[in-house]
Amino acid sequence: MTDLCEGGMEDLWSIAVVLLQVWFSVMIGLIMIPAMFGLSLGVTSVYIQILVKILEWATLRIERGHRERPTLPVPATLPFGLIQREGGSMEQEMGELRRYRTQSISRGEFALSDSFYFYIKGLESIVDDQVTQRFSSEELVSWNLLTRTNHNFHFISLRLTIIWGLGVIIRYCVLFPLRITLAIIGLTWLVIGTTLVGFLPNKRVKNWLSELVHLMCYRICARGLSATIQYHNKENKPQKGGICVANHTSPIDIVILANDGCYAMVGQSHGGLMGVIQRSMVRSCPHVWFERSEMRDRNAVTSRLRAHVAAKTNLPILIFPEGTCINNTSVMMFKKGSFEIGGTIYPVAIKYDPRFGDAFWNSAKYNMVNYLLRMMTSWAIVVNVWYLPPMTRREKEDAAQFANRVKSAIAHQGGLLDMSWDGSLKRAKVKEEFKEQQQKMYSSMVVGKKGMAPDWTVAPVTGDLVARRGKYKTDSFKILPD
Amino acid sequence: MLLFCLSVEMGSTNSTLSKIPNVEELMQETGFTPAHIVRLYDRFEALDKEKTGHLRPQDFGAINRLAMNPIGDRIIGAFFSPGQETVDFHSFVRILAHFRPADKNRPKDPSMPEPVNNRTSKLKFAFQLYDQDKDGKISRAELLQVLRSMLEMQVTEEQLESIADRTIQEADLDKDDAISFEEFRKSLEKVNIDHKMSIRFLR
């Protein structure tokens, strides 16, 4: 009996070994080596095309399902935000509220229902406002067959469920082990390679090798995420001695950008595995790692970065001026610190395709490990990178204005919303002014002021106060005599 | 390992729901769907910057758009019961539940209690906006206060008083120089409250 068992065990063992060998040769032959030299076998693009077809089919199926069963909640084409906002101006809204009044004083004067307008606007802002919207993941109109993005899609059809089930199996049993192995290989090679290069004395050879090592590792890591990256306007690629700024969505941004060029990273020095990686990277070419205590001293930070930029042979610094991860639908306020360093700024816009996986790292909800796991079990990461023409600070511009100019350029190129809602509104005085505007608008409806032109109205989609162009004619409402 | 993969795949919705105590009861009571509750919870956490599990009036005051609202303070006040200085998540959701649009598909069952988002509840909230001392009547002084908030520097005191007089004259049916809830309701019976005083979640 035991002989048989042992024989069986040996067979299993040899089968396992053979499988492992096949696995490794596939990996190295088909994925790693082409990746290292920047070539592509075209497998990923075929995969993406198949995926798109499947997702389109799924969308049609879901839409059909909704038409057949209208009691299911139908997701509308989503503008930003959680709630539906009435798009009218204050006059329109109040006018509608007052429509019930049939008496002759229906124009002008005060109606008990007037307060409803302010009340509902106030409640809407409690439930949802523009700033916090940017810190939650963009929601898709249609389901992309990942369980985690399934909020309101109930059971539609058996076929859809089967495809979803297959998807789960493929993602977890085929793609995930592949990606993890690649990631581990990539990072290990990064540490070993940079340490080896660090031993070289010669400047030019060392730099060339260091760039090669970095590129190879990032390419392997990118394959480890099934990332398809499309670079546009490569002629504007950041040069040595410059500063590269980009919008921030996730830690993967670094891998995305570093696939096409070498950058000097800026960040806090960590302990543990990150620390090992950081220390070895520094051995082969200068990066800028700060101790936690140094980070607080803004002047120290700026001067160190300035010194790095001044040495024209150093790699361009990579900075994310937003300071935190945003959900890739807009660009938020750029911190002006990065723009005080001087030198040429090379703006880069990064836009992820949300159909294949949600790249946004919501650091409040998920920790890094959880996030990486989610990345590695998504379908793929498809991303567009635009290099914008370099910009420098103009004569009369201060750092904040320059920062805004760069931000607008990036937002415009990437098709992201340029959020101008910035910290200046925290000043109480500005809030008072806005409140007064609202009161002015309202009073013109109640008491009536001749020639009063309200300059503000509420934007339809975002609920924002925006300046209105053109004069608005008001009837002059009179208070009826007793 | 399997559990971990499961949590990754399912995302945060289910884990968020499990963080909230008595969430089933809350959904029953308020009529919010799980997706709505999760959104509101995220919103609550975002407002609760110091992670105390409660919101204070200052946390609401931090919302820019609300601070610019002429009656912003009163709206904030609606969330806090008299004497209470904090509001927890359940109360937050319960109050917002009043402003859900009416369920068109709900069968009219006289034995079931009226849902919280019916027309009367919405009107009651609007009434309490005016009736700050909660004596069941909107006095002339209370009406003046609301008018002052909404109009501030833009009109004179006489104009304000005149408006208040006229409004009370119109609505006050029993001539007690104040507007009771019934008179308030009657005065607004033609307004489409459900349309105008509802917050519609997109999903």
Describe the structure in your own words.
Chain A: Belongs to the 1-acyl-sn-glycerol-3-phosphate acyltransferase family. Chain A: It comes from Coregonus suidteri. Chain A: This is Phospholipid/glycerol acyltransferase domain-containing protein. Chain A: Pathway: Lipid metabolism; Phospholipid metabolism; CDP-diacylglycerol biosynthesis; CDP-diacylglycerol from sn-glycerol 3-phosphate: step 1/3; Glycerolipid metabolism; triacylglycerol biosynthesis. Chain A: It is a multi-pass membrane protein. The complex is a heterodimer of chains A (482) and B (203). With 482 residues, chain A is of the alpha/beta class. Chain A has 14 helices and twelve strands. In chain A, strand 11 and strand 12 (465-467) form a beta hairpin. Chain A is flat. Chain A starts with a helix and ends in a 15-residue tail after the last strand. Mean pLDDT of chain A is 75; it is low at 72-79, 450-456 and 461-482. Chain B has 203 residues and is mainly alpha-helical. Helix content of chain B is 56%, strand content 6%. Chain B has helices at 2-10, 12-19, 23-30, 34-47, 57-61, 64-67, 72-77, 89-97, 119-130, 140-151, 157-171, 181-187, 193-196; strands spanning 54-55, 87-88, 137-139, 178-180, 200-201. In chain B, the strands form two sheets. Chain B has a two-stranded antiparallel sheet with strand order 1-2. In chain B, strands 3-4 form a two-stranded antiparallel sheet. The two termini of chain B are 33 Å apart. The chains are: A alpha/beta (482), B mainly alpha (203). Chains A and B meet through strand 1, helix 4, helix 12 and helix 14 of A and helix 1, helix 4, helix 6, helix 9 and helix 10 of B.
